[in-house]
Amino acid sequence: MDALADPLQATLLRFLTCGSVDDGKSTLIGRILFDTKRIFEDQLAAVAQASRRFGTAGDEIDLALALDGLEAERQQGITIDVAYRFFATARRRFIVADTPGHVQYTRNMATGASTADLAVILIDARHGILSQTRRHSFIASLLGIRHIVLAVNKMDLVGFSAERFREIAEAYKEFAATRFAFDDITAIPLAARHGDNVTAPSARLPWYQGPTLLDHLETVDVTPPAAAAPFRMPVQWVNRPDSSFRGFAGTVVAGRTEPGDTVAILPSGQTTRIARIVSMDGDRPEAKAGDAVTLLFTDERDASRGDVIAAAAARPEVADQFAADLVWFDDADLFPGRPYLLKIGTRTVSAQITEIKHRVDMESLDQLAAKSLSANDVAVVNLSLAEPIPFESYAENRKMGGFIIIDRVTNATAGAGMIRFALRRAANVHWQAITVDRATRAAQKGQQPAVLWLTGLSGSGKSTIANLVEQKLLARGAHTYLLDGDNIRHGLNRDLGFTEVDRVENIRRVAEVARLFMDAGLIVVVSFISPYRAERQLARERAGEGGFIEIFVDTPIEDCRRRDPKGLYAKADAGTLVNFTGVDAPYEAPETPELHIRTVETTPEAAADTVIAELRRRGMIGG
Amino acid sequence: MTDLSLEPHGDTAAHLRQLEDESIHIMREVMAELRNPVMLYSIGKDSSVMLHLARKAFFPAPIPFPLLHVDTGWKFREMIAFRDRMAREFGLRLVVHQNAEGRARGINPFDHDAGTYTHIMKTVALKQALDAGGYDAAFGGARRDEEVSRAKERIFSVRSADHGWDPKNQRPELWNLFNCRVARGQSIRVFPLSNWTELDIWQYIELHGVAIPDLYFAADRPVVERDGTLIVADDDRLPLRPGEKPEMRRVRFRTLGCYPLTGAIESDATTLAGIVAEMIATRRSERSGRLIDKDQAASMEQKKREGYF
Fold this sequence. Notes:
The complex is a heterodimer of chains A (623) and B (309).
Chain A: H1 7-11, E1 12-18, H2 25-35, H3 41-54, H4 71-76, E2 83-88, E3 93-98, H5 105-114, E4 118-124, H6 131-142, E5 147-153, H7 162-179, E6 184-189, H8 213-219, E7 232-234, E8 237-239, E9 247-251, E10 256-257, E11 262-266, E12 270-278, E13 287-288, E14 292-297, E15 308-311, E16 317-328, E17 339-344, E18 347-360, E19 367-368, E20 378-391, H9 398-401, E21 402-406, E22 413-422, H10 425-428, H11 438-445, E23 450-455, H12 462-475, E24 480-484, H13 485-492, H14 500-519, E25 523-527, H15 533-543, E26 548-554, H16 557-563, H17 568-574, E27 595-598, H18 604-617
Parallel strand pairs in A: 1-3, 1-4, 4-5, 5-6, 23-25, 23-26, 24-25, 26-27
Antiparallel strand pairs in A: 2-3, 7-15, 8-9, 9-14, 10-13, 11-12, 11-15, 12-14, 16-20, 16-22, 17-18, 17-21, 18-19, 18-20, 21-22
Helix pairs in contact in A: 12-18, 14-15
Chain B: H1 12-33, E1 37-40, H2 45-58, E2 67-70, H3 77-90, E3 94-97, H4 100-104, H5 114-133, E4 137-139, E5 156-159, E6 187-190, H6 198-208, E7 219-226, E8 229-232, E9 247-252, E10 265-266, H7 272-281, H8 299-305
Parallel strand pairs in B: 1-2, 1-4, 2-3, 4-6
Antiparallel strand pairs in B: 5-6, 7-8, 7-9, 9-10
Helix pairs in contact in B: 1-2, 6-7
């Protein structure tokens, strides 16, 4: 596509730079900003002052310091966080994501790469290709960057040797060709500190006939495929100022549309036509990729936030199970089975990683087996979502296939992923249509089904209270079932141990079984340590709000240890039992349980009566 | 070979449309996911653009959140008049807050150093206003090109219950997927103009005829020069030092704030085209006229940690 057909493409290039502390990355960006006159006199004065305090360039001005915004960065002489810089030339405007090379490199680089079309990979001419060069290339490729500049820096320190430059460029191209599908790789020799070949050709590199770095950045064609793809727009916000106007606001992520076009609303699949494209400056004749617009339909159709409006003749797939690449950010490890939130487009759904296919070793890029993921790990995983979503593979469209994972308890952005493809069984496993449902079964038993979830430390008295509660319910004619470690751990969950991964899976299964029994119309009493908030939250969601009563059996650990009914604390303290909750594994106490029973202030009998009273208060049982 | 003349010749209208689309997307995302957003309105050029974008984002509906102005009591009189005119013209829900306690204590920019004054009358006042409104999101007009620590701030920046910013614990932001979730008590500061430059702002104002206060245009104004900074005597509260006498000079402002703390620049730019031309030729940064940034090294980072916008 030429510049006239897509002026946006012609005017803005977003790129990122990657390299380690010593490759001269900050110096290179500082040099570009200086040469394009983006560093003002007063800022330069501040940099000169900082150079004397922190600089590494002797009496010269250390341009890298113009980029270090945080106090700690200046003191330590390192870049900590992703920074975005702006500059412009006569031909283009640029946004540079400057990503640090060491601490949290995977997280920061993935972040910077997610919005970039091109990566400048820095190499120190003295050292050539290092493992980090491979790592940076891998992340760039993973995040969908297709244009690479190999900036061979510090040419002054290898005597401006043409032979050294060619050796590095060829080795890199050979490595990249075997692993990645980059559209182009352009190698450029530089000495950023002295400005050679950054914005002006260098007399010291007479053998080099190619463009300067800035020349190349100004002219490289990075037209994304989304512009020519079928129309897609996730609904962001429904605009209803009064009953006569119902507009669907959102940003077009692919293709174009105009009034009269037939579109489908997904996942429902209803179709309609575009009536108007409304804006404050008057109706628009068309909407295309990148535009933030408000669409009106010709018929009354229901669409809500998270739905995707798409060309009716070329719809995206809808599925709830995927294979995806995943980059993990959070300090808390990822475990399969743990419930997270997944945000894709404008839709947020409950999701879990069902399987880690393999983890990628960031040094060797080899595939390794893994049971959990730690911060800065990259893996291929299978995911299962609570509901089907419209999507496209990340390779087809970043906005339709890129997602973030959010921790349900801390709200942290815990990871980011790129959909590869839907797992086919998702299309084939349909919910069995059931005519006898939960309400029918419950009505037959004359009760309201519920899950009474008792959580607390080992030895807190959960099982004692749970047994009494079940006896009391039975005495009142209620239909019940008790799930506890004895009947679950010895059978269904016999294959699970006590590591964090297994504990998560243990509770996930219990939550699912509790839900099935609830569907059967029973009042289910669950007595499990269940140390993690996230899994208890999952259990709550599986049961449905209103049917889930979380009961915190709160006994101070000293009392549990003193009681020690099974002698477990003695073993844990002696070190013969590991991963024991409260000793060397964490317990996350409920923040807002429906019932909080402090056992030191009561008896098991009275505690059980409190539970019964609460069920009556909620109208869940009679009398 | 690269042409390093400063005026960008690319398609400016297309570039500004792209920035506009991104900002509108951000505003709609906040409206869709947060309970009670508010827009900080400081009456300056960035706020003026932000207001214009908000009108566009939700058109034909009115702006679905209130605008909050933290009034130190030392703003240019013209700014206050302009603010009230905008509120009338666009039917805005305008909330004005002043730190009554600070005012009662007589905190002012002459008897107190700029740091103390800013902290009490701006940072503390802002926290009071946000707490009083129970807002869980607040839009601000800050841009990443303004200042080095801004370049490292996210578009969605989570603040603790006491409004503090932790630069080392920011959420990664990928694509245009923003994590809008906050715990009770926390709030999010949202910067929809993050990727705009000062020049973009001016070109957008020019292209769309966005209303801005006249203080941005050159005019003859009563000026005293203090330590190289040109202070406009906006009212008779400016205590004159011995020998000081305001003289009429042709000046304008590059940024607006409290008049005793905002330096004017000598200029003949009386039109938007004149301002844009001056902008392209300038060799000094925008914040060089702001006295509050000069207090200490990394002063913006420090102020933001304490809850400054």
